[in-house]
Here is the input.
Amino acid sequence: MFGAGRIGKIHAANLARHPKARLRYVVDVHDAAAAELARTHGARVASAEQALADPAVNAVVIGSSTDTHADLIQRSALAGKAIFCEKPVDLDIGRAHACADTIARTGVACMIGFQRRFDPTFRALKQRLDAGEIGAPEVLLITSRDPGPPPLDYIARSGGVFKDMLIHDFDIFRWILGAEAVSVYATGAAPEFAEIAAAGDLTTAAVTLRTRDGALCQINTSRRAAYGYDQRFEVLGSRGLLQAGNQRPTEVVAWSAQAISQDTPEAFFLERYRAAYALEIEHFFDGLSQGTPLHPNIDDGIKALELAELATRSWREGRALDCSI
Amino acid sequence: MFGAGRIGKIHAANLARHPKARLRYVVDVHDAAAAELARTHGARVASAEQALADPAVNAVVIGSSTDTHADLIQRSALAGKAIFCEKPVDLDIGRAHACADTIARTGVACMIGFQRRFDPTFRALKQRLDAGEIGAPEVLLITSRDPGPPPLDYIARSGGVFKDMLIHDFDIFRWILGAEAVSVYATGAAPEFAEIAAAGDLTTAAVTLRTRDGALCQINTSRRAAYGYDQRFEVLGSRGLLQAGNQRPTEVVAWSAQAISQDTPEAFFLERYRAAYALEIEHFFDGLSQGTPLHPNIDDGIKALELAELATRSWREGRALDCSI
Amino acid sequence: MFGAGRIGKIHAANLARHPKARLRYVVDVHDAAAAELARTHGARVASAEQALADPAVNAVVIGSSTDTHADLIQRSALAGKAIFCEKPVDLDIGRAHACADTIARTGVACMIGFQRRFDPTFRALKQRLDAGEIGAPEVLLITSRDPGPPPLDYIARSGGVFKDMLIHDFDIFRWILGAEAVSVYATGAAPEFAEIAAAGDLTTAAVTLRTRDGALCQINTSRRAAYGYDQRFEVLGSRGLLQAGNQRPTEVVAWSAQAISQDTPEAFFLERYRAAYALEIEHFFDGLSQGTPLHPNIDDGIKALELAELATRSWREGRALDCSI
Amino acid sequence: MFGAGRIGKIHAANLARHPKARLRYVVDVHDAAAAELARTHGARVASAEQALADPAVNAVVIGSSTDTHADLIQRSALAGKAIFCEKPVDLDIGRAHACADTIARTGVACMIGFQRRFDPTFRALKQRLDAGEIGAPEVLLITSRDPGPPPLDYIARSGGVFKDMLIHDFDIFRWILGAEAVSVYATGAAPEFAEIAAAGDLTTAAVTLRTRDGALCQINTSRRAAYGYDQRFEVLGSRGLLQAGNQRPTEVVAWSAQAISQDTPEAFFLERYRAAYALEIEHFFDGLSQGTPLHPNIDDGIKALELAELATRSWREGRALDCSI
Here is the structure.
C-alpha cells in the first residue's frame, strides 16, 4: 500500500477484508502514518524499494499523492506487480502515456481508481441501460458538485477543476455512453472566489460533449454546493429516462409548518462512495485471483485525462474543440 | 380574439372568467371554428378589419398561426388596441423589430405569451430566488422535453427546434437569471429521425449560455421523451439550490414486487400549463384595468428570439458565439 | 341553492359551469350573503317556500348549516326535487332514517356530498384497486388531520370528532373496501386542549374497523396538524400496496445546508378538494340529465353516520363494539 | 457466541470488528456450522459448559433458537458473564421474569437485541423527537410488514404474530413514546392463508395502544407484503410530524411511458438492519468496556413481551384490555 492518508486507510481496510488479499507493506513519507496503518492491519512499514523487491508481493495499491503516481506505476510495472492506482495517472498526458506504454510492455494488470463505476446506484443504472430498458442513450446530464472548495494551495497543484474534479465525470461519460467524444466545449467562472480565479481556476463549469453517434452530454459542476456533496446523473434514451440520485444518511422526513424536509446528501466522497471503494478493491483482487480483466484500466485513465485537457483548453480559448481527429 | 384553435379556446375561456373582460369578436379563417367559439362565449364572428375598427374593442388576444402575428400586431397597434400575442413575435428578427418599433411609436400595451413565467411552481421559485433564499444564482439547468415530435410539415414551418421549442427556455434563462447572455453554444442531433434531420432540424439539443457576471446556463431538450412532457429547471446559488419539478395528474403511489411507482408528468403543455395560461390572461387584463406594466413584453419576445437565432447559428457553424457585442 | 356561505359559493360556482344547470334561487338566512351570491350568478334571492314551490326548479343543492339538512331534505323530497345535500344528513340517526324513508317514498334522486370520492387521486386509486392491480384489499390505513381545531362553539355543536371529521373517513372505508364493518373500536384524547376535553370531545382519535371478510382498517385523526391539512390513505392488497398522497401547492424543492424541502400540503379542504367539489357537482347534474344513479346516496350518508355513532360509543365505553348484528 | 446460524454469523462478524472484543468460542448444536463460524473468526468450538467455565470469557452473545434463550441467560448470569441476548427473552412470561430475577440477583449486564433502536433512521428520528423538534408526541403509527410468511412449522413454534413479529414494534412504541401502555386492543385475520389460521395465527393484525398521557399508537402488520420488507413509522407531535421511511438498495429512478419508479425497499431484515446489527453489538461492547448502561435491557424485553401477550389475549377475546393495573 503506497500512501497511508485518508484514501490509503480506506483501501487498506477494504483490502484487509478480501479473502485472497493480505496487506504486507505500508509505504508513506510520513513515518507515523505508515506505522499506524501497518499496525492496524498487521503489516510492516517499508520503503518503495523494499516493497517492490519482495517477490511475495503480487500487487500494489497506489494511494499516495498525485505527483508520485507515474513514478510508482513505472517502477511497479517493471517489478512485475499488478497495479491499482488512484486517479489521475498523472496531470501530464505525456507521462501518463509513458505509464501506459510500460504497462503494455510489461503486461502487468493495471486498474485505475474511478470508483464511481462501482457505486451501487450508478452500476445498477448502467446495467439497466445495457439491458435496453430505455433504448439507445441520447442525452446524458451529469451534476457533480463538491460541498466546498479545497485550500488554495491544493487548487494550485490540482491541475484545475477539469483534471481535479471533472475527470471522474469524463469517465462517467465514456462509461455510460460507451463512446468517445468528437467535440468538447467548456466554459466556467469563479463568482465570489477571486483568489481561485487569480490562481487560474474555476469554481463553476459547464461542459458539453458530443459522440460520433450524436449522443449529447452536459456536465455541470461547482466547487461549492452549500447543501453538500451532489452527485447525480440522468440518461434520456429513446424509450425512457434513468436517473441516478444521491444517497441520504437517513430516511427521516420532517413535516413542519414551513416545509416537508429530508436529509441533505451524504457529506462528501468518503461517505457517498463508501460502498464503491469497497467494491472496486474487491473487483481488483477478484480479477487478479481469477485472471479476469480489470476495469477501468489505464486507457480509461488516459482518455478521461485527455478530455480534461481538452476541456481546459476549450475554456481558456473560448471555443468548441473538435476531438474526433 | 384572433384564432379559434386549441390555444384560442383556452385564452377565450380564461378571458371570459375575468371580471373586467368581455369577448366581443372571434376572428379566424376557419368559419366554423370561429362561430363555435363565439357562440360559447356570447361573442360575434368578425373579420380583422371589423374587429379592429370597433372603438369598443380595447384589447386583442392573438392566438392565430405564427405567420400572422407580426401583421396583426402592427395593425392592432395602429388601431390603438392593447395586445396580448402568443410567442413568437415572428420567426424573422427584422419583422419582430418592426413590430417593436410600432408598439413603441403607438404606445399601446403589449404582452407576449411566455406563459411559463406564470406557472405556479416556476413563479414560486422565482420569488424565493429574488428573496435571496439561495444567494446569487450561479448555475441554471433547464430540461425541456416534448412527449413526441410534431408532424414533419409543422417542423418545416417551425423555424427549427431553437425558435420553436427553446424560445421558451431562452425566456426562462433571461427571467430567472435577470441577465443577458454574453456567449451561446449549441449542439444537437436527430438520432432515429432521419426525416427531421433531412428537413434541417434536430430532435435533441444542448445549449450553453453565459452571462456577463459568469452565471452559467445549460439547456437540454428533446422532441421525444417517451414518458411525457418534461419541464424542470434548477438554480444553484451561493447558499443553496432551488428546483422546479413537474406536476403529476394524481398523487397515487403503487408498490409492486417490481418497483414503487408514481404517475408520469402531465401529458403536454395544455395540461401542464393550465394554471399558467389562466394567470397570464389575468395578468394582462389586470394590468390593462389597473394601468400597471405588462410582463413579459415585446422586448422579452425579441430577446428570446435573438437567442434562438444565435443558438441556431452556433449549431450550424459548430462554434460558440459571442453575443456581448 | 340553500346556503350562501363558504361551501355554498363553491357549489354555486361549479353549478354555474355545468352546461345543463342554471342557478335560479339562492336561499340563506343572511340576506346580504344570499343577495351577493345570487347577483354573481344571475339568480334571485328567495325563501325556501318560494324556491320549492317553483315547478321550474328540478333540483336543490343543500349547503346550509347541519341543523337544517333534515328539514330541507324532507321538504325538497316532498316537493319532488332532486337533492344534493352536504354531509351529514343529520347528527341524529333517527332523523337521518326519516329522511331516507321520505326519499324512498317520493323516489327523488338524492346524493350526499362526500366529495372525497371525487378527488382525482382517491378516485384513481379506487379504479386501480377495482381493476385488480394489488389483488384483494387486506389492510386500509387512513390519516385524516385538520390544520387546527375549529372554535369551541363549533365543536360543541359538531356532534364530536367522529361525526364531524371522521364521517368522511368512514365513508372512505366503506367505499374503498366495498364492505361493511363488523366491529368498531375507537379511542382518543385531547392533549393540550383542556377546553375541548371539557366540552366532551377529542383532538386525537384512533379507530379500528374490521369487515366480515377480515379486511382491517385503521383511521387516525388529529384536529391540529401543525404542518397543515393531511389527507392520505393506503391499501395493502395481496399483490401490492396503493397509496394516496397529499397535493402540494407547488413542486419547488429547496436544498439548503440544513435540509432538502418541499411545500407542505394544500392548506385546508377548500384547496385540497377544489377539483373534487367540481367533479361531485358535475356527477350530480350529469346523473340528473342522463338518468344515471347518483353516488354516494342517502344510504351511504346513513351508514357513515352509524359508524360515527358506534365509534363515539366505543370511545365513551372504552370497549370494542360488534356491529354485525 | 451461542448460535452459528444466520443471526449468529452477523453478530460474530460485527463482534470481530470491535477493538475491545475477541471471539473465543462458538457453541452450536450443529457441529459443522459451529466449526465454520469458529474458523472464520479464529475461535474454537466448545460446549456451553466449557465456554461458561472459562474465566477469560467476559461476555456471551446468545443468538441460538428462542427456546434456548432463558436457559442460557440463567446459566450465563450465574457464571457471571455479561449477556447480549436476541429477542425474545422467552415466549413464556414466567420464565422471562425468572431470567430478570437472576440478572438482578447476579448483577450481570444484560442487553436484549431489539436492533431497530439502532437503525440510523429510527435513531435519528428519536433524537430529533427528544430534542423537541415536533413538541410532545401525540400519535404514533407503525407499519411493520414481512415480505412473506415463514414456514408453517416455524409459525407453530413462533408464539404467534404478536410475539414473533410485533414484539419489535411494541418495543418501538415504548422507546419512541417513552411511556407504558394503559390499554391494548388487537384484531387480525389470515385472509388467503387457511393453514396459518388453522394453526391459530394471523397474517394481518391491527393493534391500538394508549399511554396514560393519552398518546395513541396504531400498529399494522402483515406477514406478506408482495413488494418486500416494509418498516416505517411516523410520530405526530404538537408542532409537526416525523416519519421514518424504508431504505432502498439503490437510488435509481426510471421514467417510462407507464410510470416513474424507484426500487422497492431492502429485501428483508438482514439487509434493512445491517447497520443496526453492527451498531447494537458496538453499543454492547462499548458499554461493557466503558461501564456505561446497556439499552434495551431485560426489563425492556419483558415489557415488550407482556404487550405481545396482552395483544394476543385482546385478539382472542375480541375486546380491549386495560393494562394500567
About this structure: The two ends of chain A are 39 Å apart (CA to CA). Chain A has two domains: 6-108, 117-273+297-322.
